[in-house]
Design a protein that fits this description.
Layout (H helix, E strand, L loop, with lengths): L1 E10 L2 E11 L4 E5 L6 H9 L5 E9 L2 E2 L5 H7 L1 E4 L6 E5 H9 L6 H6 L10 E2 L5 H15 L3 E5 L7 H15 L12 H7 L3 E5 L13 E6 L2 E6 L1 H11 L2 H7 L1
Parallel strand pairs: 3-10, 3-11, 6-9, 9-10
Antiparallel strand pairs: 1-2, 1-4, 4-5, 7-8, 11-12
Helix pairs in contact: 3-5, 5-6
The chain binds adenosine-5'-triphosphate (ATP).
Adenosine-5'-triphosphate binds next to strand 2 and helix 1.
Keywords: ATP-binding, Nucleotide-binding
Organism: Desulfonauticus submarinus
Pfam family, one: ABC_tran
Length: 253
Amino acid sequence: MLIIEDLHVKIGDKEVLKGVNLEIKAGETFILFGPNGSGKTSLLMTLMGFSGYEVVKGKIVFKGKDITHLPTYERARLGIGMSFQRPPTIHGLKTADLVRLCARNKDLDVKKLAQKVNFEDFLDRDINSGFSGGEIKRSELLQLMAQKPDLLLFDEPESGVDLENMALIGKIVKELLSGNGMEPRPDIPMKELKKIRQVSGLIITHTGYILDYINADRGQVLMNGQLCCEGRPRDILEHISKFGYKECVRCLK
Ligand SMILES: Nc1ncnc2c1ncn2[C@@H]1O[C@H](COP(=O)(O)OP(=O)(O)OP(=O)(O)O)[C@@H](O)[C@H]1O
C-alpha cells in the first residue's frame, strides 16, 4: 500500500527526516512513537504533500504509484486521508460543506453521518472555529468518515480528548481502519477477514490510549528524523514507559 524509501525532508534549512524507510502493507496498522520534535508530524505532512516539507532525497510510493511530488488533492483522491493534531480554523467554510467536499458527493446525508460522532450541532459552524480539543478530533473523524481513505494518517488521535470521548474516538478509528463501517461478519474467520481488509493506518501516539481500541500490527520509534526499534506496539510503549527513549538513542548508534 505505502512504501517510503530513503526519505530526506527539509523544512527551510533544517533536515527533519534523515533517510526514513518504511513499508505499510494493505490492511496493516503501523504505530509511530517518538519524542517531541523527532519529526513524526513532519513525516505525515510530507506523506500528505503539504508545502514547506521539501523532499530532498528518496521517494514515496502509494498503491504502486510514485506520489513524491504529487499535489495534496491528488493524494487525497488516490486515497490518503489525515487527521491533524492542530488543524487550522477556516472562517467562511461551514463544517457540513467541508464534509460534503471530502465525500465529493453533494447528496451525502451529512447529518446522519455526524450523528455517529455526536456532531450534528456543529455542522453550521465554521470549521474548527472555537472548537474544543475533543470537538476538533470529532470533526476530523467526520471528514475521514466522509472521505473513506484507504490509508489513514492519524496525528495523536488522543490529544485533548476526555475519557468518554476517547471511547467514541477509539470506536470510530477502529471502524475506519476496518473498512469504513464495514458490517460485522461473524460468518468469516478472523484470519480471512484480515485478508479482505484493505484499509491501512499510520498512527502517531504518545500515550498509547488508542491501542486499547484498535488492532495495531507493528510499531517503530522515530528519533531525530530516523526510524529505529521496530516491534509490537504494546512492547515498545511498555519499554518507553519504563526506560524513556534512552535505549532508542543507543539503538541508532
Ligand atoms: N514550520 C517549521 N519551521 C521550522 N521548523 C519546524 C517547522 N515545523 C516543524 N519544525 C521543526 O521540525 C522538527 C520536527 O517537528 P515535528 O512537528 O515533525 O515533530 P514531532 O515529532 O511531531 O513532535 P511532537 O511529538 O512534539 O508533536 C522540530 O524541531 C520542529 O521545531
